[in-house]
From TrEMBL:
Keywords (A to Z) from UniProt: DNA recombination, DNA replication, Endonuclease, Exonuclease, Hydrolase, Nuclease
Record function comment: SbcCD cleaves DNA hairpin structures. These structures can inhibit DNA replication and are intermediates in certain DNA recombination reactions. The complex acts as a 3'->5' double strand exonuclease that can open hairpins. It also has a 5' single-strand endonuclease activity.
Keyword Heme included in the entry's annotation: no
Gene: sbcD
Cited InterPro entries: Calcineurin-like_PHP, DNA_Repair-Maintenance_Comp, Metallo-depent_PP-like, Mre11_N, SbcD, SbcD_C
Recorded family membership: Belongs to the SbcD family.
Name of this chain's protein: Nuclease SbcCD subunit D
Pfam families for this protein: Metallophos (PF00149), SbcD_C (PF12320)
Subunit (UniProt): Heterodimer of SbcC and SbcD.
Cited Gene3D superfamilies: 3.60.21.10
Length: 387
């Protein structure tokens, strides 16, 4: 059986205030064409269909059009909600859509109920595990703790229990939206840290033939059977070196996986350039970036006059300007966002405590209190999104 594994569409997202809807439409045209031309048996979408819980109307219309086009091909689609999606909103109408071959899996309680497909070699069970917010689903899944490893482990126990009751030779695929240990993150993924632990071990997926993962935006192979497709478009300059693609996965009669990357269309290349302004304006080696979306980091000791206007004359698609002086007092002008880049909510909160107390860091008890407060806010946000 042949699958097209994709994820993290983030419909409705912009890139530094540039609308990506035309690029997202081009990707969906590419996806439908790949499904048709490569004789795909099922499409797997591993979460973050939308960029936010209440997406703009244009994004909803694009999603609706894509579903109609996939249904018209007669190719089943299995789709789960991600941490950016509102599970309840995305799941509206799922019963009716199922009749058209569109299977929206947004209910954690249904983790152990697969979509069943057949090919010449027998049945394939596809299990959809939506994003599992630990505090929200712990009781539903009977997990021993409210953390990612515990709730995803409890969900996979349901998968394995159901699979054990199926006929011998039934092949299995799991869709999940999580941060699995060994994966490499980008700047554009929303932090899902809960209880200080965001990642789950790859061993949680033991017992299934293929795990189609979403959440991390870089295409990655953790093992031959556990892969991230990554996002089809770049959503931050940290993804400038990514090769955006989907996985075309063939599942043999014995469950052996063969995977091929299918490149996605790119609206415009990304470039990160760095140096003093005058060098960036004069360096002939940078000519190849003149039609790219550009993030420019200026290392001048003092801020140059009208840097964005001057950069735009050579690089008209400059979207981000960062100041990072090589030396001197101007270093303190580094942007707040730049100083926080790559730091978790817990680390930022602990740094704040140390700052307001003249360097005295939070003790163990205070760190536990901070973590609890952050988890409560995250759970409240998740509850508001599904309300």
């Amino acid at each position: 059986m042949r699958f097209l594994h994709t994820s993290d569409w983030h419909l409705g997202r912009s890139f530094h205030r540039v609308s990506l809807l035309p690029a997202q439409r081009a990707f969906l045209d590419h996806l439908v064409g790949t499904v048709r031309d490569r004789e795909v048996d099922a499409v797997l979408v591993a979460g973050d269909v939308y960029d936010r819980a209440v997406p703009p109307l244009a994004a909803v219309e694009l999603f609706d059009e894509a579903l109609h086009r996939l249904a018209a091909l007669g190719v089943p689609t299995v789709m789960i909600s991600g941490n950016h999606d509102s599970a309840r909103r995305l799941g509206v109408g799922s019963g009716l859509m199922r009749q058209a071959g569109i299977h929206l899996r947004t209910d954690p309680a249904a983790c152990g109920t697969p979509v069943l497909l057949d090919d010449a070699h027998g049945p394939v069970a596809l299990y959809g595990l939506p994003y599992l917010e630990p505090a929200m689903v712990r009781d539903t899944l009977g997990a021993p703790r409210a953390d990612h490893a515990a709730v995803l482990g409890a969900a996979m126990d349901r998968v394995r229990d159901d699979l054990a009751a199926r006929p011998d030779g039934t092949r299995s695929v799991v869709l999940a939206h999580a941060f699995v240990t060994g994966g490499t993150a980008s700047d554009s993924e929303r932090d899902i840290t809960v209880g200080g632990v965001a990642s789950v071990p790859a061993a949680v997926f033991d017992g299934v033939d293929y795990a189609a993962l979403g959440h991390l935006h870089g295409c990655q192979t953790l093992t031959e059977r556990i892969r991230y497709s990554g996002s089809p478009l770049a959503y931050s300059f940290s993804e400038a070196a990514h090769r955006k693609s989907s996985w075309l996965v063939d599942l043999d009669a014995d469950g052996t996986v063969h995977a091929e990357r299918v490149d996605c269309p790119a609206p415009r290349p990304l470039a990160r350039i760095r140096g003093p302004l005058e060098r960036l304006l004069d360096d002939p080696e940078l000519a190849r970036h003149e039609d790219s979306w550009v993030e420019a980091t200026l290392t001048d000791g003092s801020r140059p006059h009208e840097p964005m206007a001057r950069l735009a004359k050579r690089f008209p698609h400059t979207l981000s300007l960062v100041f990072d002086p090589d030396e001197g007092p101007a270093r303190s002008a580094a942007s707040y966002a730049q100083r926080l880049r790559g730091r978790s909510d817990q680390e930022i909160a602990e740094d704040f405590v140390a700052h307001v107390r003249s360097g005295r860091a939070a003790d163990d008890a205070e760190r536990v209190e901070l973590r609890s407060a952050i988890d409560e806010v995250r759970a409240a946000d998740a509850a508001a999104e599904v309300a």
